[in-house]
Amino acid sequence: MSRPHRLLLVLLGLGCVTVLGWRCVAWQAAATEFELAYAEHAEVAAKSARIATLRALPPVSGYGSRPAEDVIQLANRTLEAATLPAARLRSVQSEMDRAIQDDREGRRLTTARLSLEPLTVQELGAFLGAWRSRQQVWSVARIELSAITPARDGGNNRTQGQYRASVTVSASYVDDAPSSGPKQATPTASNGAHP
Could you give phi then psi for residue 178, rounded to 5 degrees? Predict the structure, then answer.
């Protein structure tokens, strides 16, 4: 074999080794990307299963006369159970009671909106867990969450990762005395907030 042939074989061998090395690097990157995607898929599947489990739980529902306990007091006791300061409860707004549509038993729904801030996601979870474990009548019907951004808070970086939560709670009851119109929630004041 002549020298040019040997040189050509060496160059071909180097080319093959380079291509194989590049393919190995690409395969390793693809394997790493697959592992990350698989782990992310497993995490999303676990969260979806948790959400499905929570949605399958029956709602807490009172079924008697109109709840007499003040929602502000309930919220303050729940904050205490979740080891959160009472100052996180900014306001409580009661909505007018209304009849539940297509309900043959004459049930009505009373609703209140709790405004809580500032909260981290973990603190909101602690509050909701304490609310659910302590309530026999009021259930959480809706949660609205908005981030408190440094720009909205005068550039204060302490608010990063904190939120303003609007938690709507409701309770169903049977109206003791039928009336011609919806009952108005009786406002009571406590800590400067209005139910």
Answer: -60, 140
> How many angstroms separate the CA atoms of 91 and 116, rounded?
7
State the Rg of the chain over Cα. Answer: 30
Q: Phi/psi of residue 174, each to 5°?
A: -100, 125
Asked if 75 and 114 count as a contact pair (C-beta separation under 8 A), the reply is yes
DSSP secondary structure letters along 90-143: EEEEEEEEEEPTT-TT-EEEEEEEEEEEEE-HHHHHHHHHHHHHH-SS-EEEEE
Q: Omega of the bond prior to 118 within 30 degrees of 0, cis?
A: yes
How many Å apart are CA 71 and CA 139, to the nearest integer?
12
**Secondary structure letter of residue 83 according to DSSP:** T
Q: How many CA atoms lie within 13 A of 177 on its CB side?
A: 2
How far apart CA 166 and CA 180 sit, in angstroms, is 31
What is the rounded CA–CA span in Å between residue 86 and residue 77?
9
* Number of alpha carbons in the 13 Å side-chain half-sphere of residue 24: 6
**Does the global pTM surpass 0.85?**
no
- The model's pLDDT over 125-160, given as tens digits with 9 standing for 90+, comes to 999 999 888 877 788 888 998 988 765 545 555 556
Among candidates 94, 130, 88, which has minimal Cα distance to 112?
Answer: 94
